[in-house]
Design brief:
Layout (H helix, E strand, L loop, with lengths): L9 E7 L8 E7 L18 H14 L2 E7 L1 H7 L1 H14 L7 E5 L9 E5 L2 H4 L1 H24 L5 H4 L5 H10 L10 H12 L1
Parallel strand pairs: 1-4, 4-5
Antiparallel strand pairs: 1-2, 2-3
Helix pairs in contact: 1-5, 2-3, 7-8
Length: 199
């Protein structure tokens, strides 16, 4: 069992957008100060309101020793699969950090290939402050991107559902067909393509 020591520079990693039908998967890496109290209110980003996430994202960027965001595009998701693309996004976030970690905590059971020790933690975004912080930064960054995508590709409702497979999104997808940012290998998108081909 890997255990972080007082000498370790600890980074937390998490991603947002794995379950979406459109848009990139975005990961964040955060190194919080090793001493002192965690930022109040840190939690799994999905359990926070958009207003709370935005407030905490600003605090994290102010308090963190280092933070970075990485991404994998829809074409990469289709090529590699969503799990491998998520790990790739984490690797890219790590490469963009201004401080080199010596130990990484990752939300979930799967760890990216990083040049230091790592440990996957189920529900880590609820249990570990650095993972919670990464969860929040990734979610805020991705939501902002999907709001911008709504202006480029109107009619899908990206600003509302952020690419997740809601009933409204599925209905728009079947009516309009996929946009350039949809993940063509995901079954609901494949079904929309098949429908268009039979019309």
């Amino acid at each position: 069992m890997l255990v972080a020591t007082a000498m370790d520079i600890l980074a937390g990693f998490d991603e947002a957008g794995r379950g979406c039908l459109a848009g990139p998967v975005i990961a964040a890496a955060v190194i919080l100060p090793p001493e002192g109290d965690p930022i109040p209110g840190l939690d799994d980003s999905k359990r926070l309101s958009p207003k709370a996430r935005a407030r905490l994202a600003d605090l994290i960027k102010t308090e963190a020793l280092a933070f970075a965001v990485g991404r994998a595009e829809p074409l990469e998701i289709d090529h590699y699969n969503i799990l491998r693309a998520s790990l790739l996004a984490m690797q890219r976030a790590c490469q963009s950090l201004s401080l080199t970690p010596t130990y990484g905590l990752i939300d979930g059971p799967h760890c990216p290939d990083l040049p230091f020790r790592t440990k996957g933690i189920i529900h880590g975004d609820r249990l570990e402050p650095s993972i919670s912080a990464a969860s929040i930064l990734a979610k805020v960054a991705r939501d902002q991107e999907m709001i911008m995508a709504d202006r480029l590709y109107p009619g899908y409702g990206f600003a509302v559902h952020k690419g997740y497979p809601t009933a409204a999104h599925r209905k728009a997808l079947m009516a309009l067909g996929p946009s350039p940012i949809h993940r063509m290998s995901f079954k609901p998108v494949e079904a929309a393509i098949d429908r268009l081909e039979t019309i």
